[in-house]
Amino acid sequence: MNRSNSGANLPTLRSHNAALVLDLLRVAGERGISRLELAERTGLTPQAVSKITARLRAEGLATDAGHRASTGGKPRTVLRLVPDAGYAVGMHLDRDELTVVLVDLAGAVAAGRTAPLDFGAPADEVVAVAAYAVAAVRDGGARPVDLPVLGVGVAVPGPLDHRGGVLHRVTGFPQWDGYPLRDALAARTGLPVVVDKDTNAAALGLALRAAGAGDFAYLHLGTGLGAGLVLGGGLHRGARTGAGEFGHQTVQLDGPVCSCGGRGCIEALCLAAVARGDVAEAARVLGTGAANLVGLLDIDRVMLGGRTVAADPDAYVRGVRAVIDERARLGGIDAPVPVTAAGGGDRPVAEGAAQLVLAPLFGRVAGAGVGGADGGAALVP
User: Fold this and answer.
1) Comparing C-alpha atoms, which of 353, 351, 347 is closest to residue 155?
2) Which residues are CB-contacts of 167 (< 8 A; sequence separation ≥ 6)?
3) What gap in Å lies between CA 333 and CA 235, rounded to an integer?
4) For residue 218, how far is the Cα from the chain centroid?
5) 264-298 pLDDT tens trace
6) 158 Cα distance to chain centroid
7) For residue 334, is it left (φ>0), alpha (ψ between -120 and 50) or beta?
8) Which residues, 6+ apart, have CB-to-CB distance to 222 below 8 Å?
9) pTM for this prediction
């Protein structure tokens, strides 16, 4: 495939059925999957599967992975995905740091880098830094590589309009209000761009990796505090794409002033405890908010992430779990919601941002492709 400033083109993926087949190839991994299995799992006829896989092979997206013994007749040919047939750049623009990764179709990270960032600088300067980072990770440093890059997924602090890629009043950075980040970065890079909240991106990536996780909340504690929600098999953004502003729920009336202008926000209380080195108190405050969320949404799991959690994951998991377990005991619930650490610091956010571009190609995110989306996004066909 030839490199193009407008990104790589995968025409086969315009077909929903082809996306289903490609997703099963992705899930099968190196082991591969036979055409018969593809037909059984998709409900398509063997003839339809043969046509689709023939096109995928012709376009370099699928290839033979050997043969598998058959219960009768000749051995079955097994197919697998070609991971390097396409890539996406995933980027996390945090308040003080930029993380960027290059991810292949299988979700593996081929390259990545982290650098300081001043999110409070003029927006055009931040976009210029971001565009340089995209070029650097795409080119592999000093040795340019001809890679079919499909687009750039950008994860940023909210609130924002992910459909138009426009930021709103990011807490502490009001100068971003109304800035068209998607269009500005697309103009700089020559690639399609999709923008979403950092917590949504991370939740998407985790949902695709953790099959069977059910409904869960991803709580991200770093320079701020937010949540990504996966409900009913879909990434939940809300009708106005404002869901997940977890850090600005009031847990102490007339409490300390938060950077959002409110008082007693869980983010303000949690970050204050972090600043004075009181991890146990930070975890207890975070657990209080998590327990509220569990009680409100009846979710199956809570995942913790972000660089602050990564600095002492056991303490945060233990502290949050203690509050949730106590709330469950008081409510007569025998099986409390499990709490786990996502791991990887801020890396899951950048990797999830790449999935904002890749996942729709596999039919995993309905309506959340580059350039626009619905309020929710299905993670399963």
Assistant:
1) 353
2) 156, 160, 161, 176, 177, 178, 179, 181, 195
3) 27
4) 10
5) 999 999 999 999 999 999 999 999 999 999 999 99
6) 14
7) alpha
8) 94, 306, 307, 308, 346
9) 0.87
